Amino acid sequence: MSDAQSLLDSAKAWWSTDIIDIHPGKIGIRGYPIQDLIGKLTFPQMIWLMVRGDVPSKQQAQLLEAALVASVDHGPHAPSIAIARMAVTCGVDLNNAMASGINVLGDIHGGPGQQCMELYEQIAAAHDGTRELADVADDVLGGFIGAHGKIVPGFGHRFHPIDPRVEPLLGLVANAASQQVVSGHYAAIGRAVEAALRRRTNKPIPMNIDGVTAVIFCELGFPPPMGRGLFILSRSVGILAHAWEEMQNQHRIKGPMPKEIPYTYTGPRDRKLSDQ
């Protein structure tokens, strides 16, 4: 083989993908011609096909869609939304504002769903059938709290005493389990964690949106890191809507508070620069 051919082969192999095959006049997604997918797959089905490689059933896609719908927005006080809106008032374009909001979806603001999935998976792995689920959840939760602190991702909410999104989503999981679309095992694990937290604290710490979407994503077989990615997809819709709304307002340089409300200065006062 010539050096030129070897170099060409190396260049062609530089990027490889199972996802898409593109040639002039041809676009194939996971082996399906794009023209066969347009108008036939829903967006949740397309998401599934892209990240999983197969087409989900209608019931699986509906459950995924419900989780995505429930997480799109939580108001302008949510940091990712507020940052996107503030970015718009600084004169940036829509894509920059969206990127600004998405970039803060880290371990605290965007990661609890993934962390909750990791907790659920630990419990599922430890529940081998020789012990009651409640006992396993209690033990694993204790280790999780010891390793990560008292705040358990997926439970409790700083704004909602009872998160209104939880019961409708759990109802959909129960219905899907009754049709054998999912096992229902992770829903039981989520409830077991909720009960274990109540026993530990002597007060209710209800499941929140991160905890219930973690149930759904685990039931559907997504790995925990994908849970964060799916949340980001969902919240991007809210970020887009708020950024666009703020663009219509045409405000300039809005900070986190109105200028009439001062921040708190905590440094030294009335210092003088001494002679050198």
From TrEMBL:
Pathway the protein acts in: Carbohydrate metabolism; tricarboxylic acid cycle; isocitrate from oxaloacetate: step 1/2
Taxonomic superkingdom: Bacteria
Keyword annotations from UniProtKB, A to Z: Acyltransferase, Transferase
Listed GO biological process terms: carbohydrate metabolic process; tricarboxylic acid cycle
Enzyme Commission numbers on file: 2.3.3.16
Chain positions covered by the region annotation Disordered: 255-276
Pfam families: Citrate_synt
Listed Gene3D superfamilies: Citrate Synthase, domain 1, Cytochrome P450-Terp, domain 2
Top EC category: transferase
NCBIfam families: PRK06224.1-1
Protein family (similarity comment): Belongs to the citrate synthase family.
Protein name: citrate synthase (unknown stereospecificity)
Species assigned in the record: Povalibacter uvarum
Lineage: Bacteria, Pseudomonadati, Pseudomonadota, Gammaproteobacteria, Steroidobacterales
